[in-house]
Amino acid sequence: MNWVNGRHAWMQTLVSYCSVPLFVLAVLLSLGFSSLVLASDEAAQCSTQMAKTMADPILKSRIFGSLVQQNLAIIYQDNPDYQADAKGPKNMLADGRIGRITEKWLGYFCQEFNQAASVENENDFVSQLLTALVTVAELTQNYPNWRQSLVSEEFKSWLAVLTTKGQYSEPSCEAMPYCYGTPTQLHGLFDEFYLNPRAEHYTKEYPEANPGASSNVRSNGPDYYQPVVRPQPQVLSYYQFNDIDMGKLTLWSENTTKFNKLVGKKFSSDIEIGTALTPIVVALIGTDDSETVSKRLAALITVTPAEYQLLSPKPSEPSPEEPKPDEQSPEAKAASQTSPKASTSDNGDANSTETSGAAAAAVITPAPATTTQVLSQPQTYEVSRETADNFLRSLSLLALSEAQLAKLSSLTGSVFLDDYLLSIAIKELALELDESQAQALNTLAHKTGKQGQAAGKPLVWQPTPGCGCTQNSIIEDGNERPYYGFYPYWQQETGTSIDYSHLTRMGYFSAVIQGPQLLLPNNWRAEKAYSQFAINAHNHRVKVDLVFSSRGEEVASPSRGWPYNQNMVEQIIAAVKTPITGNMINRIKPVISLGTSPSRTLGDGVTLNLDLKEINSQEKVDEFIDFIKKLKRGLSSKASSGASSNTSLDRVSSLSGVNSSASDEAKPTDEYYLNLMVPAYELEAETPEFYTVDNLAKIEPYINIFIVNFSPLSSAAPTPANNSVSSLKAFRTLLGDAAYSDSAGRVFAKVIPFIGVNDADINALEAVVNYTQWSYLGAAFWTMPLSAQAATLIEKSYFPVKPLMFPSLQPVVELADKVCNQVCPLRWPLRLVFLLLVLIVVIYAIASWWIFSLRQLFSRWYFLVFLLLASLFIMLVFGCDPYWQQQQQLFLFIFILGIFGYNFFRQLAQKRRGSLP
């Protein structure tokens, strides 16, 4: 078949093959190029060169063979032909040898990148081939879709622009890797293509890639050689309140409080108000630039001009020596009336009369009136409420109270994988904020990039003082009453403790499913410091489930893709079955238990907390049900725990089937559980989504526990129903409907209600607990650790103390309980001591058959003391170890048989010895 634009025909290929020596034809036949022939010239050259170098001792080396096979596995990981050969018997593509299968793909690689034609010295062919393998493997790891891009119209148009500009020489051919240069040159070309942004003229001039197949590509070639649109890189993000964020919130809150105290306060001068406002404004805007601060102050300060009042003066008062007109004497009045006549009749006295009249007028007439301007209100400076609100709104500041900051400070440093987990963590705080404030808090916490793995702190799950093993483990007498506790991974308070005796399983909340990607909390690790939480839980016989959450928009997003597929199954299983490291007891458990108890993994099950509102077609429903079946089958598989999904192709194949056998169905004794959180508020809404009674009945055989939640965990979601007795009754009524009588009973048998114990009012919580203890098989508690009131109520309701038949034995029973509460969590170290003790006794007894001096120990008094103490130790272990309790009759029989056997052989030895010393 021809991949190079009609360069060669079958006749030319046949002629070329006929010109090759017979031994080269033999090699060609062994390579099996029925579906791998690229071009006849390249095939012939590679076959010839490889035939000459097959005797090279380097090619026979295991080190070289392993290196070649590792790189081939990377380069052709998506090639169906390669995968078919890898799944063949004995996996010859991973045995470290250059056999015929490896030669076949090495020859194919040589042809695809035209290695034989570019070699200058035959002695350098092997080293050149190895260098090319490493380079192309790196290229494939960096850009897995480079082959699709190679034959896409987008790549061709982009390369044409570079060629036109003279930045790249025109390719010698099309659609084949060797057309564009050596592997190193090809790697550099794709670095440029993927990493450098497109020029503006290119975007306008050239359209997006054509999804149709190129005419230069063989029609029946590998699927990865079909052109597709180059995917856009996904922007990684997470949410975190770091020290800088908390510093900002503290600064904003303190200065906003100071700022609000100045609003409406009047200042007498601009200097006074400037002195008070400037440091607050600088702290809020985050800069001390004088021009910026001045503009902000000018927009903030409102100046009220001074006000003046105009005052008119009062009329002038007469002189106190001069009588008022009304008070003049009759003689004066008469004189004033006769004075004009006197002035006309007597000219000689006229001047004197006028002078006296003018003087009188000067004394009696007031001065002209003048207006006085008096300051009634001085000029003031203030910040109005309107300008203050505009200023704060322009900065988008978030001001919290001291109590709110204290609530948020406990989350400092915790990494939230998405906004859903963040909304759950700040739910209590978000209820006190309005929508804009909650959005501002979300924006502040949002970070771009990859979360720092070193940011996680190990969880500390300490048992309460005197806490023993769980009292309601499923292993005990087939008891199927699960009590489930949820623990968010960001809760890292010190000094908290958990009463394991009242739990069956713990849910580690939560990993996140984002499209095809699985994000794990950065403190979900197998190292000793991080895995201690699981070890503490296992010591008290409590299992640990990893919770997986997703949002509905993740399913609906075309850029994300459908997440519930085989790849997600493998990722979930690999995360849960991560082996615990750094714990000696866990490593030697198979030895101590004689193979009956394997080493524990970090997780013991899966709990799915999925928003499936976007699954609105029967096709998607069927795909999700198939996902549940595959996941349960993978959890039940005995494949190596913690193995990567890419390390075992057979394992992938075994999980790919849909039909399930009876062994895949959920049972109380399953080593790994599969649980599902069911939103009752969606189930009752009767919407065409996944959560319906019929769909739950279809997956019921594969689910161990249904955890029914009656209100969303997130504060961002609506809350149509509270976790109350009425909600619990409504759910029972729904499942008791006659329409579901055949299937609802099986579902309800696995249902436990989700109870928000620490968020609820104690009276409402008591009503819920009293109802559930009689109507449901168990309960799930959000969140652990429980408050003191909630713990007391749950212990009294679910775990009442049974009265003794003989009350006088109460002190003895309490003492026995205290002893067993100390012994049970230490059962594995004690089992190790018991095993070593038995081995020592057995080895000593066997050795005494040949060494007579060793037999003297059996007749010594301290050997009897040893037997007595050993018997007490064994009885203590048997009485407090749950496993030995189940087998106590068998082991008691063996113990008694051992004592009789010892006594029998001792008497036989004494009889044989007779009177001998």
UniProtKB/TrEMBL annotation:
<feature type="region of interest" description="Disordered">
    <location>
        <begin position="309"/>
        <end position="359"/>
    </location>
</feature>
<protein>
    <submittedName>
        <fullName>Uncharacterized protein</fullName>
    </submittedName>
</protein>
<feature type="region of interest" description="Disordered">
    <location>
        <begin position="637"/>
        <end position="665"/>
    </location>
</feature>
<feature type="compositionally biased region" description="Low complexity">
    <location>
        <begin position="350"/>
        <end position="359"/>
    </location>
</feature>
<feature type="transmembrane region" description="Helical">
    <location>
        <begin position="890"/>
        <end position="909"/>
    </location>
</feature>
<feature type="transmembrane region" description="Helical">
    <location>
        <begin position="828"/>
        <end position="852"/>
    </location>
</feature>
<keyword id="KW-0812">Transmembrane</keyword>
<keyword id="KW-1133">Transmembrane helix</keyword>
<feature type="transmembrane region" description="Helical">
    <location>
        <begin position="861"/>
        <end position="884"/>
    </location>
</feature>
<keyword id="KW-0472">Membrane</keyword>
<feature type="compositionally biased region" description="Polar residues">
    <location>
        <begin position="335"/>
        <end position="349"/>
    </location>
</feature>
<feature type="compositionally biased region" description="Low complexity">
    <location>
        <begin position="653"/>
        <end position="663"/>
    </location>
</feature>
